[in-house]
Amino acid sequence: MAEDLTAVDFFRDSRLTDDPYTFYEALRNKCPVSKEEHYGVTMITGWQEAVDVYNDSDTFSSCISVTGPFPGFPISLEGREDGDITDLIVEHRDEIPFSDQLPTLDPPTHTNHRALLMRLITPKRLKENEDAMWGLADDILDDFLAPGEGEFIKGFAGPFTLRIIADLLGVPEEDRADLLERLARGTHGSAVGNAEKTMNKTPLEHLYEVFATYVEERRAQPREDVLTGLATATFPDGTMPEVADVVRVATNVFSAGQETTVRLLSTALKVLGDNPDIQAKLRADRTLMPNFIEECLRIESPVKGDFRLSRVPTTVGDQALKAGCTVMVINGAANRDPRRFEDPDTFDPERKNARQHLAFGRGIHSCPGAPLARAETRVGLERLLDRTTDIRISESKHGPVGDRRYQYIPTYILRGLTELHLEFDLR
After folding, report:
1. Reduced to 3 states, what is the DSSP secondary structure of residue 132?
2. Which domains, ranges and CATH numbers included, belong to the chain?
């Protein structure tokens, strides 16, 4: 008798690490809004249903966005399922791990903190940052490409995105080597991907002190630099944020953006290496690049999903949910919903609605760093194609065509390769 895939423990069954998509499909076919039996989480696998949840911050709180069912809400909500638990969320949210991080905040606090972030990621600053990306890419590629082969994540994607973030934040040149080393040690899913193991440690806590010093120094002695802009930015009502608020915003830019962009870049290179026809098409027509990147985001969303807590009884799709219901919006499932995307398991670089993917979320918590991630990926890919005539997957490391072996990050939060070994012919 065939196993009922919908009964698999999504959060702990290692079989879903390599291929979660058959599980998503089985769950969606059963019902696009379906409660899993292990932790009582309502799984949203349909595209429209996911959009409905993301766009309704009045009904759904983001207080458990990162942690989900581990450890869950701090107090029992039994007997309150038919009421409004908003006051309880306000009272107890500080007891939830990662409650000081932007993705877990609700309005009006979220509104203020996101506005602070958007004063950092301004169109002008993004343009300056992008102009610097080309030189950063070439600098790293000089060493990475020279041997004709290499591991892409540690050799290019990781260092490239780290240096871009350091540039965006305006980290002083004399501090960058030390800080980049510390940033590298604090990433790659160690905190976000294993939330239940790190309940007492804030992500990137070891960087808070460094950035607090920067902010305090710039407030005391302003300069003509990015850090001064960050340190002196005010909330929309004109009030000056606490130093800790500014520091959390700055480190959130790094923790959320760097890790996911690395996964996006590695997905793009895996597609190019595994599909010589797509690589040839992209080399011949660079105008396809933006849509190619969107299709990479659709086919392998770097963030598997986001959690929400229902404040009041509501309905999603045709399913009734009670107050206090833990919901997981699964981006990777919604992005392969055949009701929205034709032939969803096939990578199509010219897919007309590829940009409708939910890899960056929707609503008030849509990824503020999306323009940065797109620019980083485009610049990195352009320079790789400019400087090579062919990029191949290493058969000695990943196996031959038709029998590839890839390893993925073993978390229920992030989706991405742990290693990608490439071979290339140089121009």
Report:
1. helix
2. 5-426 (1.10.630.10)
